[in-house]
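pls design
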């Protein structure tokens, strides 16, 4: 892997972690309610680490190459969110 590819991967990974979303809303609401925020943030970072490792292992390329698998994962994710 070239240095530029490696740097781009980690730049996107960093953006993935700092972009606000439902996970950050949970951490903020935990802090507002007086609960401990550190476990919430640790859980968020653990999830992002697992997702980053999965992509780094090349699973993303395999899934992108099989449109049927991507469709199944999309529908399963939508079902989970409902």
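designed seq:
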């Amino acid at each position: 892997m070239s240095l530029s590819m490696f740097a781009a991967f980690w730049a996107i990974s960093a953006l993935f972690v700092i972009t606000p979303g439902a996970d950050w809303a949970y951490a903020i609401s935990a802090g507002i309610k007086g609960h401990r925020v550190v476990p919430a943030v640790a859980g968020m970072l653990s999830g992002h680490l697992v997702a980053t490792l999965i992509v780094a292992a090349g699973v993303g390329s395999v899934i992108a190459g099989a449109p049927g698998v991507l469709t199944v994962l999309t529908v399963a994710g939508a079902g989970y969110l409902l």
